[in-house]
Write a structure and sequence with these properties.
Layout (H helix, E strand, L loop, with lengths): L2 H21 L4 E7 L9 E4 L4 E6 L2 E6 L4 E6 L5 E7 L4 E6 L4 E6 L5 E6 L4 E7 L4 E6 L4 E6 L4 E7 L4 E6 L4 E6 L4 E6 L4 E7 L6 E7 L4 E6 L3 E6 L5 E3 L7 E7 L4 E6 L4 E7 L5 E7 L8 E2 L6 E5 L25 E6 L1
Antiparallel strand pairs: 1-28, 2-3, 3-4, 4-5, 6-7, 7-8, 8-9, 10-11, 11-12, 12-13, 14-15, 15-16, 16-17, 18-19, 19-20, 20-21, 22-23, 23-24, 24-25, 26-27, 27-28
C-alpha cells in the first residue's frame, strides 16, 4: 500500500469510527427542568421546530422553552390531561382531556383554547396524522377512536376498536397504528378511510402501552408490562424480537438520527436504550432515572430525552376500590429530567 493510500485508509477509518460513534451515542443525566405545582402527569410531546416541550400536568399543559429550559406558558381550563398532539403546519395543538371526554384545540402561538370537541369516553392517546390532516383521539373506556378534521375541528368519524387503546403512532404514509392493551395486539388503521385493516398479536408481549415507530425501516416498538419490548415489522405484523427492558414501562420512543429505541420504566426508575446489532439482534442498556419517570419524549434535533417525575410521599394502603394506590406527590416537586448523548 502506498503512503498516500495508507493515509487515506487511516483517515477514512477514523472518520467512519467517529460517524458510527455519533450515530449510536451513550446517554447520561444532564440536569432537570423544575415546574412545581401540584398533581400528576401523563404524556409529553416535543415540537422540534419551535423547540417547545408540551407536558401534561393534571388540568394543565405546561409549555417549556427548550432553548432556555424554562417554563414558557400554559394551556389551562382543562380537567384531566393525557396527551398532546402538535399540527405545526396548521399552527394548532390538540389535547386529550380524559376528565371532560373532549379533545381541546389550541393555538400554538398564543396557547389559547379555540375549541372543545366532543370525543368518546376518556380520550387518552392522541396523534396528528400529517398525511390525512386528521387528529385521532383514542378513547380508553369506550374502546374506540374519535377522528377529527384538524383544519376545522369537526368530527369526521368514530372508529370502533377491539379493546382498550393505548398509545398511537403514524407512518405519515396513510397508516396509523395503536396498541390494544387488553388484547395484547397492535391495530393498523387506514387513516384516509378511517377503517381497521389489521390486528397483529404481540405474544409473548403482554399489556402493551407505549408505542414508537421507525418510519424509514418500517419497524414498530411496543413496550409491555412483562418487561419486554416487542419489535414488529410494520408491513407484515410479525414480531421480530422481544428484548428485555425495565419494569413498569409506559412510553416508547424512537430517534431516527441515532437509530435508537427507548422505553421509560416508572417502577424500576430506568430508561432502557435499545439498539440493533444486526440480524434482528438487539442490545439493551438500562440507565437509572427516578421512580415515577414512566413517560418521555425525544427531541430528534438535539437527541435529548425528557422524562417527567416528582418526589413522592408514602403509599396509602390498598382498599376494596383501589387495589393499587399510588404514593402521594409532594407539592412543588414536579420536574422534567433531561438525558443527553
Amino acid at each position: 500500500m502506498t503512503s498516500v493510500k495508507c493515509i487515506l485508509f487511516i483517515v477514512c477509518a477514523v472518520l467512519t469510527g467517529r460517524f458510527a460513534s455519533a450515530q449510536t451515542p451513550s446517554y447520561k443525566a444532564a440536569g432537570s427542568i423544575s415546574i412545581g405545582g401540584t398533581g400528576g402527569w401523563d404524556y409529553l410531546t416535543v415540537d422540534p421546530d419551535s423547540q417547545k416541550l408540551y407536558v401534561s400536568h393534571t388540568a394543565l399543559v405546561e409549555v417549556i422553552d427548550l432553548r432556555s429550559q424554562k417554563p414558557a406558558g400554559k394551556v389551562s381550563g382543562l380537567t384531566r390531561v393525557h396527551g398532546i398532539a402538535i399540527a405545526a403546519d396548521l399552527g394548532l395543538g390538540f389535547i386529550s382531556d380524559g376528565g371532560a371526554n373532549e379533545v381541546v384545540q389550541f393555538g400554538l402561538k398564543n396557547l389559547e383554547v379555540q375549541k372543545k370537541i366532543k370525543a368518546g369516553t376518556n380520550p387518552d392517546g392522541i396523534l396528528y396524522d400529517a398525511a390525512s390532516k386528521q387528529v385521532f383521539a383514542f378513547n380508553g373506556r369506550s374502546d374506540d377512536a374519535t377522528v377529527i378534521s384538524a383544519a376545522d375541528g369537526t368530527v369526521t368519524g368514530t372508529l370502533k376498536l377491539s379493546g382498550k387503546p393505548e398509545f398511537p403512532v403514524s407512518d405519515d404514509k396513510g397508516s396509523v397504528f395503536v396498541n390494544i392493551e387488553d388484547k395484547s395486539e397492535i391495530t393498523k388503521i387506514d387513516a384516509k378511510t378511517r377503517a381497521v385493516v389489521a390486528h397483529w398479536q404481540l405474544a409473548p408481549c403482554e399489556s402493551p402501552s407505549g408505542l414508537a415507530i421507525d418510519k424509514a425501516n418500517e419497524r414498530l416498538f411496543s413496550v409491555c408490562d412483562n418487561k419486554m419490548m416487542a419489535i414488529v415489522d410494520a408491513k407484515s405484523g410479525k414480531v421480530l424480537a422481544t428484548p428485555t427492558i425495565g419494569e413498569g414501562p409506559d412510553a416508547a420512543a424512537y430517534d431516527p438520527g441515532t437509530k435508537l429505541a427507548f422505553s421509560s420504566n416508572g417502577e424500576s426508575g430506568t430508561l432502557s436504550v435499545v439498539r440493533e446489532g444486526g440480524k434482528a439482534q438487539y442490545s439493551v442498556t438500562n440507565l437509572q432515572t427516578a421512580p415515577g419517570a414512566r413517560t418521555m419524549a425525544v427531541d430528534p434535533s438535539s437527541h435529548k430525552i425528557y422524562l417527567p417525575t416528582a418526589s413522592f410521599g408514602p403509599t396509602p394502603p390498598a382498599t376494596s376500590t383501589n387495589a393499587h394506590p399510588r404514593p402521594a406527590i409532594q407539592p412543588g416537586s414536579f420536574k422534567v429530567l433531561v438525558f443527553a448523548p
